[in-house]
Specification:
single chain, alpha/beta, four-stranded mixed beta sheet, 11 helices, DNA-binding, LysR_HTH_N, transcription, LysR family transcriptional regulator, WH_DNA-bd_sf
Length: 299
């Protein structure tokens, strides 16, 4: 039944029979047969079928929740037993919102020094996508906002507060300022992240409250794309302080604190709230708690 639960999880992820079969390394008829056998074992129809995948039945959605729980327990068991012989090994997948990506090295580097046989995959995703990846067992942990969207059934470790900077050229009307207000920024043509990003929704909210509904001159779902445009000196943007601090700008670009109001949001590590946790996730939580005081004091 474990193998058939894996098929169910793959179908939930891909929403397509062919792609789910490919992800599992089986043929589509083998996938369909495995799902049919699972339905026969449980005595209910799990999948709405037509010429293509339609969705899950109510029973299928509930079975999917149990499948995630069972597969999570099996993976935790395998990791724990392997760790008893060889120490901590395996693959750690961390999903993070784009503005948190520069900070991941603060977590992964000390973790790697303690557990050299663990491999990492870092995934850039929106805040909603981070939670979806964790829930579907496609990511082991995430770094996202802790004080905005509802987080659901997760454990959290606060890490640092995200503040915001105005990036502009020294020759621009606000380029010689020590500080700027949100109201002043609202009168400047901006390039910003796309609306599906929580950072963009935060910026939009602050600008709206200052009396300006902004239509950006450029939108991108990549922070690198935004920062590379700002770097030319022809564009302005509002970015997280972590991005402004890590990117090497020429002397012609200013990174200016924003006030009236001075806004910040809590960032942190999130993992699925389940017991037992995998040994890798347990170790990651411990590392996050260890670095959090220094990280919060520095940023």
């Amino acid at each position: 039944m474990i193998d058939r639960f894996e098929l169910l999880l793959a179908l939930a992820k891909e929403r397509h029979f062919g792609r789910a079969a490919e992800a599992c390394g089986v043929t589509q008829p083998t996938l369909s047969a495995g799902l049919k056998q699972l339905e026969e074992q449980l005595g209910v129809r799990l999948v709405e079928r037509g010429s293509r995948f339609i969705g899950f039945t109510p029973e299928g959605e509930r079975a999917l929740q149990w499948a995630r729980r069972v597969i999570g327990d099996v993976r935790a068991m395998r990791q724990e037993i392997a760790g008893m012989r060889r120490g901590l090994t395996g693959h750690l997948r961390i999903a993070a919102i784009p503005t948190a990506m520069p900070m991941l090295s603060e977590l992964t580097t000390p973790f790697h020094e303690k557990h050299a046989d663990v491999r990492f995959t870092l995934i850039s995703a929106s805040s909603n996508e981070v939670l979806r990846l964790i829930e579907n067992l496609e990511a082991d942990a995430g770094v996202t906002y802790l004080d905005n969207d509802p987080l659901g059934r997760v454990k959290t470790v606060p890490l640092y507060r995200e503040g915001y900077r105005f990036l502009t050229s020294v020759d621009s009307p606000l380029g010689d300022r020590a500080r700027v207000t949100w109201k002043e920024i609202g009168q400047v043509p901006l390039c910003l992240l796309t609306p599906d990003m929580q950072n963009r929704r935060i910026v939009d909210k602050q600008l709206a409250e200052s009396g300006h509904a902004v239509t950006p001159m450029l939108e991108a779902n990549s922070t690198i794309a935004l920062l590379s445009h700002v770097r030319t000196g022809k564009w302005a943007s509002v970015v997280a302080n972590t991005l402004a601090d890590v990117f090497a700008f020429p002397s012609s670009i200013r990174s200016i604190p924003i006030e009236e109001p001075e806004v910040s949001h809590q960032m942190g590590l999130v993992v699925l709230d389940r017991e037992p946790m995998t040994p890798i996730v347990t170790a990651l939580l411990a590392e996050a708690r260890a670095i959090a005081p220094a990280l919060a004091g520095r940023i």
